[in-house]
Amino acid sequence: GKNLEISHLVKQYANADRPVLDDITLTVPAGKVTVVLGPSGSGKSTLLRTVAGLEPIQGGEIALDGEVIASGKSGNAKSGRQQRSSDLRTRVGMVFQSYDLFPNKTVLGNITLAPTIVQKRPKADAEREALELLGRVGLADRKDAWPHELSGGQRQRVAICRALILHPEIMLFDEVTAALDPEMVREVLDVIVELADQGLTMMIVTHEMAFARAIADRIVLLDGGHIVEQSDDAERFFTD
Ligand code: ADP
Ligand code: ADP
């Protein structure tokens, strides 16, 4: 994984009278899990979306190991939704709360689509890796299933595989367990914990306090578009 450096980030939606993110400075260290907490509407989702290149920014910079991937200058030039560059699509993996699998593709087809189309990898090669990833998340036997045949937890695990096959430098998770039954939450959390153990840089928005406490190396508390607290000692954050 790489270090994600956010400096003086300002994000304001076109129809809003004030920024939703106001002067956010934050480092997400390589190989660590940073959990972003905060009340609904505090800007957590927006923060992830700016890092993923899904929203232009109006001020500041976002960099991966010193390389600028978004800046307020380019964000100003464009209005509305920015096209996510294929470069960022492979470098920054993102999994959303609502499973966004392609309904007319099988599990294997969903996972191999981006590597074959965007990266022009040979299909057999992409399929081999997809099967390996499905094995890791306990879904090898579901490779030919259609999304509607899967449970919510299974769909989220497929969505994680779909991001991982592009070998992202950082993974972003936006409330990926929010729409799941408790037993499915466990399946998805187990996969995320395993990725953390392997040292992938991750930034996670969650309301699951027990999960945050179990997985976080670093906690960032967001409120009203500002960082109100940062802690490198997650255990202490939760016990204080
Ligand atoms: P959180 O993830 O913490 O709930 P969000 O980032 O989703 O917060 O939203 C922060 C604020 O920005 C909210 O007031 C929300 O209504 C607003 N917002 C989110 N997305 C948009 C958008 N596309 N256009 C305008 N306002 C938005
Ligand atoms: P989350 O908190 O996970 O972002 P929301 O329900 O706030 O979930 O947002 C869902 C979608 O609606 C997002 O794509 C967000 O950008 C959009 N959205 C949220 N608030 C607004 C708003 N005030 N105006 C326009 N779009 C919004």
From TrEMBL:
<dbReference type="GO" id="GO:0015424">
    <property type="term" value="F:ABC-type amino acid transporter activity"/>
</dbReference>
<feature type="domain" description="ABC transporter">
    <location>
        <begin position="4"/>
        <end position="240"/>
    </location>
</feature>
<dbReference type="InterPro" id="IPR030679">
    <property type="entry name" value="ABC_ATPase_HisP-typ"/>
</dbReference>
<dbReference type="InterPro" id="IPR027417">
    <property type="entry name" value="P-loop_NTPase"/>
</dbReference>
<dbReference type="Pfam" id="PF00005">
    <property type="entry name" value="ABC_tran"/>
</dbReference>
<dbReference type="GO" id="GO:0005524">
    <property type="term" value="F:ATP binding"/>
</dbReference>
<dbReference type="InterPro" id="IPR003593">
    <property type="entry name" value="AAA+_ATPase"/>
</dbReference>
<keyword id="KW-0067">ATP-binding</keyword>
<keyword id="KW-0547">Nucleotide-binding</keyword>
<dbReference type="InterPro" id="IPR017871">
    <property type="entry name" value="ABC_transporter-like_CS"/>
</dbReference>
<dbReference type="GO" id="GO:0016887">
    <property type="term" value="F:ATP hydrolysis activity"/>
</dbReference>
<keyword id="KW-0813">Transport</keyword>
<comment type="similarity">
    <text>Belongs to the ABC transporter superfamily.</text>
</comment>
<dbReference type="InterPro" id="IPR050086">
    <property type="entry name" value="MetN_ABC_transporter-like"/>
</dbReference>
<protein>
    <submittedName>
        <fullName>Glutamine ABC transporter ATP-binding protein</fullName>
    </submittedName>
</protein>
<dbReference type="InterPro" id="IPR003439">
    <property type="entry name" value="ABC_transporter-like_ATP-bd"/>
</dbReference>
